[in-house]
User: Which sequence fits this backbone?
């Protein structure tokens, strides 16, 4: 068998150390994600780290440092497809970005161990876990600070619900009222919400608004014939 001819004990033990280190370090990162019930938890994170380590270790064994560099480049880009699977958009909010970034970091940890840089992989693991845990109180404190609508740059959308028959007139009146209040509309789209309801979503050109002024405009829009509900939403642009 060719396996018997090519098997070398010390390189094999080196691979064992690399994969075992990737497993342990990936488990440390994944345990925090699993505890917080994220989309990609313990098993996914471990598999990403071990997989990256296995690919890089194989490249080192077959083609040396040059081969490892090429494989690492593919790992960096390839993990993006996996990360995209945990990102979900819910209305104006996007969830899963932090988990996707954690998977990307887990791949980096695995690549380090696969390249026999176990200490560097352990260091990266410390920073990843610190980013997901120690920074959480700071993030919560920042999120509790009231947003200054005048100073912040954000995307603002006015959302109006109407019926199909009143759609043309409501859309025209909606844009007219926003223009009169000096809130020019950059884009208007419609979204069907069943047979008898349609949402009109107007994206404002303005990057800053006066909350009370926009509330007053939305109240006037809600009084237009055919409108069943009107509101506005904002999301940061950076």
Assistant:
């Amino acid at each position: 068998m060719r396996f018997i001819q090519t098997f070398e004990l010390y390189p094999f033990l080196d691979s064992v150390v690399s994969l075992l280190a990737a497993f342990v370090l990936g488990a440390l990162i994944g345990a925090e994600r699993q505890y917080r019930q994220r989309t990609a938890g313990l098993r996914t994170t471990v598999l990403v780290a071990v997989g990256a380590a296995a690919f890089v270790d194989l490249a080192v064994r077959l083609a040396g440092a040059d081969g490892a560099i090429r494989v690492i480049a593919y790992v960096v880009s390839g993990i993006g497809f996996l990360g995209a699977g945990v990102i979900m958009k819910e209305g104006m909010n996007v969830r899963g970005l932090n988990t996707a970034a954690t998977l990307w970091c887990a791949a980096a940890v695995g690549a380090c161990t696969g390249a026999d840089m176990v200490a560097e992989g352990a260091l990266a693991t410390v920073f990843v876990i610190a980013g997901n845990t120690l920074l959480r109180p700071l993030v919560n404190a920042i999120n509790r600070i009231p947003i200054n609508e005048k100073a912040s740059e954000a995307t603002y959308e006015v959302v109006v619900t109407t019926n199909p028959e009143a759609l043309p007139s409501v859309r025209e009146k909606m844009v007219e009222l926003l223009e009169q209040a000096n809130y020019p509309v950059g884009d208007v789209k419609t979204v069907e919400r069943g047979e008898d309801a349609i949402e009109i979503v107007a994206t404002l050109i303005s990057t800053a608004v006066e909350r009370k002024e926009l509330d007053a405009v939305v109240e006037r829009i809600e009084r237009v014939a055919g409108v069943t509900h009107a509101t506005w939403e904002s999301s940061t642009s950076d």
The mean pLDDT is 85.
